[in-house]
TrEMBL record:
Principal place of residence: membrane
Keyword terms of this UniProt record: Cytoplasmic vesicle, Endosome, Membrane, Synapse, Transmembrane, Transmembrane helix, Zinc
Membrane topology category: Multi-pass membrane protein
Naturally occurring in which organism (per UniProt): Scophthalmus maximus (Turbot)
Gene3D superfamilies, A to Z: Cation efflux protein transmembrane domain
Lipid metabolism among keywords: no
Record field: transmembrane: 35-59, 65-87, 99-120, 135-157, 169-190, 196-220
UniProt similarity note: Belongs to the TMEM163 family.
Compartments it resides in: Cytoplasmic vesicle, Secretory vesicle, Synaptic vesicle membrane; Early endosome membrane
GO cellular component, one term: synaptic vesicle membrane
Protein name: Putative transmembrane protein 163-like
Gene Ontology MF terms: zinc ion binding
Length: 236
């Protein structure tokens, strides 16, 4: 991933992503527009999923549903950051703009992970039992399938544009898909094995830690790069 998003060594190309070396201008703009469209679609879908998941979390006392709802909200924010990243047509290959977007995403990831961890740990400590029904299953399946589909598209565009921001947005959608299915799995296990009530909360803790680790790594990788590239902005 780091190799794909490297800054070229030549003086003329300094401050540009590797995609500037292999994409023709009209190709880059075409993929930029696709990234914008995917981000808008992702925002609309994840807003609906977040509302549904928050409803499930409150009605069914599900820690993983709350975690998914928070991750869906995070997905909305990360897609908004991607919209900002590609809003300027002239900045499609700008490394500095790319790294700023990644730093913002890293901060959002860390804050969201703390909220998810806090809720999951609280539910484990109070032994909050999830309630299982068809509504919970429906939300889990639809959420999982939609989020994974969005993640695949974002990963593909991110590789073409060598965009860490798009790949990060795709990672967040992938986590959302996994969380959607984790709700289904934990609910099904609890239905047949009530003594394994802690599976739901444990899934919430695990997902929170994954998001936290990714956010910290993103900041460690990107903050130095923001400083290195701030003197090479060209699109302004």
């Amino acid at each position: 991933m780091d190799q794909e998003m490297k800054i070229t060594d030549s003086i003329d190309d300094r401050g540009l992503l590797e995609s500037s070396m292999r994409l023709k201008p009209h190709e880059a703009q075409s993929y930029r527009k696709k990234a914008l469209w995917v981000s808008w679609v992702s925002i609309m879908i994840t807003i609906v999923l977040a509302i549904a998941a928050f409803t499930v979390s409150i009605m069914r006392h599900s820690a993983s549903a709350f975690g998914f709802a928070f991750d869906a909200t995070l997905d909305v924010l990360s897609s908004v950051i991607v919209l900002w990243r590609y809003s300027n047509a002239a900045a499609v290959h700008s490394a500095h703009r790319e790294y700023i977007a990644c730093v913002i995403l890293g901060v959002i990831f860390i804050l969201s992970s703390l909220c998810i961890l806090g809720k999951a740990i609280h539910d484990l400590a109070t032994k909050l039992l999830p309630e299982v029904d068809d509504f919970l299953f429906s939300v889990s399946i639809v959420s999982g399938l939609l989020c994974i589909a969005l993640a695949v598209i974002k990963f593909m565009l991110g590789r073409v544009l060598t965009s860490r921001a798009l790949i990060t947005d795709g990672f967040n959608s992938l986590v959302g898909g996994v969380m959607g299915f984790s709700i289904l799995i934990s609910a099904e296990v609890f239905k047949h094995e009530p003594q394994v009530w802690y599976l739901d909360g444990t899934a919430g803790v695990l997902i929170g830690l994954i998001i936290l680790a990714y956010g910290v790594k993103l900041l460690l990788d990107m903050v130095p790069r923001v400083r290195q590239t701030r003197n090479y902005e060209r699109f302004e």
